[in-house]
Amino acid sequence: MTVSRGFASDNASGVHSDILAAIADANPGHVHAYGDDPWTRRAEGLFRREFGPDVHVFFVFNGTGANVTALQALMRTYEYAICPATAHIYQDECGAPERFTGGKLSPVKTPDGKLTPALIEGSIEGVGFEHHSQPRVVSITQSSEYGTVYARDELALIAEAAAKHELRLHVDGARLANAAASLGCSLAEACAGADAVSFGGTKNGALCAEAVVFLDPGLAEGFKYIRKQSAQLASKMRYIAAQFVALLEDGLWLRNAAHANEMAALLAREASKVAGLRITQPTQANEVFAVLPHDAIAPLKAEFDFYMWDEAADEVRWVTSWDTTEEDVADFVDGIARAVGNA
Question: How far apart, in whole angstroms, are the C-alpha atoms of residue 262 and residue 312?
Fold first, then answer.
């Protein structure tokens, strides 16, 4: 089988060898199911080390499951969550948040995938009016779907705005590791002020391993039932937990994320030298957005795997992964130059 690396998604990359080894090490013998096992307890301890001694963590299978179950814990059926119009929960989860919460999403257009206090304030309406859904949650993505990163002062202002209106703050942290690597801070600092975080492992070298982290422990009450009803309770949970042990114990999460970010920066830097190509967003994590000549896109896609972002604008998205190499980037940039030159 031909081994190739594309730039479509960090979901397309393989599983890190240390994580595969951790799964194998957890395999022998029998342990009690559904999280009553040594690996789960060890992983929970590592999450408390990273996010704080009072956090509650629950492991789930995928990012949509993490987001949907977290939102169920934060809002009621007559409430809504404010989010960017580019948010994964709004654009890419097939209505699952609305289906499972019974509430609504209130999308806000942004130039860079990031909310601001002013945008949040402008989305609050009908408070106390029984004919309108009620605001309850602010949901941001760190790093955002545009590859941009909320700086720590921006997070503080958003948390302040949410608290002012008694709103809960949810962070979709599918790429929280990339954000923390970009900011040069801890995982906790990269989502400071959040009440609940959907923490991603899959995009950072793991396999079907995500977590819901409640920084406000009171919100975790009853969550084990939400997780079960939402078909996100793993019977053989030790295999998910073992992956988080591998990621968190000695900083593998940071090494993987930092490398992916470095490869994105390299790609953006080299691709920007191609005449006729324009980088459209700051490359702050592991995603690069660019506009290409229309006739260059199809030939390039025939050679390399990546996604269109905005077809009307000829904007594409390129994502680097923990296993992207400098050679991968060089080959891709050569392909971009050929495609653009022939367009």
Answer: 29
